Amino acid sequence: MSSSILTRTTLAALLFAAIPLSSVNAVASTPLVASPLTTAQATHLDNLKSHGTAEIDRRISNLNAALLKLNATTKLTAADKTALTNTINAEISGLNTLKAKLTADTDLATARTDVQSIVSDYRVYVLLLPKTRLVASADRFTAVENQLTQLSVKLQTKVDAAKTAGKDVTTMQVSLTDLKNKLADAQEKSTSVIAPLLALQPTDYNQNHAVLVNYRNSLMAAHDGVMAARDDAKSVIQALKGTASPSASPKS
Amino acid sequence: MPEDSQSQQPATPAPETPAPAPSPVTPPAATPVPPTTPAEPEMPKPSPTVEPFQSAGGPPPQASEPKRGHKGLIIGLGIVVVLILAAVAYYAVSSGVLKLGSTTKPSPTPSSTPAAADNLDSDYQQLDSSVGQLTNDLNDADTALGDKQGDLSE
Predict the structure, then answer these.
(1) Coil, strand or helix: which one is A212?
(2) Is residue A53 within 8 angstroms of chain B, CB to CB?
(3) Tell me, what's the ipTM?
(4) What is the number of CB-based contacts under 8 A between chain A and chain B?
(5) Which residue in B124, B130, B149 is closest to A125 by CB distance?
């Protein structure tokens, strides 16, 4: 009987003692959330804003420079130029919106998220600008490959004429056939990268940081093919000069 | 002027025959060689002197002998003028001052092969230049790939 009374008294005392502790915690937690930023936090927020604004401005400046180059270039196809221009303009617009939002941010967490999105949501330097250059290079490939095609047609005509005239054109024809094969391979490699490059988004880079490498490697391989085809064309031209009769080719 | 002289010839039967000979020569020689035109007015002068001999039954060949010499001189002058003109024309054409047309250009067949070679050379040089620009573009793209340019690491 006495032990039960002792137990009840102890529990009651513990509960009574716990009441002030819980009330103090409840009172103390509310002012922590609603309290204004400390001086250090405010300074940190200002630094984030100024740093983020500078990064946004630098990106917009580089994107505008890229737009100027795009408008001036004559090597890009109209469709590719339009697609790249639209992409860049969309990034500039998005960055301006983000800049306004960052300027209006009042807490550190939101400002941090906005500053991080300058990089992760736009990928100006690691994706958009390299992508633009790669597409421009791929379009220049098209122009060079058209030149090679026209030259190969002329060379084939000359080789056929030399063959009709009784000249030995075996070596020339081998080089010319190699030229055509190299050209076809380069065309396949260079044209196949344009559409996937244009479709790349920052999220693609976020998932795979090496997303541009394969396209770059394809263009480098196409470049090697174009160089080899050019060398083939040179050898055929020199061989054609060698087959010309002395009276017919006074030019040194 | 020559046409007028020919129309006057039927009036005097005897000197008519020498008169037509110089007429075809005079047109080309009219501008460069003036002496041929003053020779024509002299032609009617002997005719009045010949008429008395004919009427007298005298020897007409003697009267015509100086005319034959004059005629030969005119013909000779005409030939010389024609030769000079031909020589000048030949020199002008051969030196390229005067172009008569594309069909007269010499040796079209031998020149076709060097021209074609030049064309191929030009095409190749343009191609080589384009390949060089392409290489530069790829290098720029490579640079852009490796250039993060960000204080914030992308």
Answers:
(1) coil
(2) no
(3) 0.71
(4) 108
(5) B149
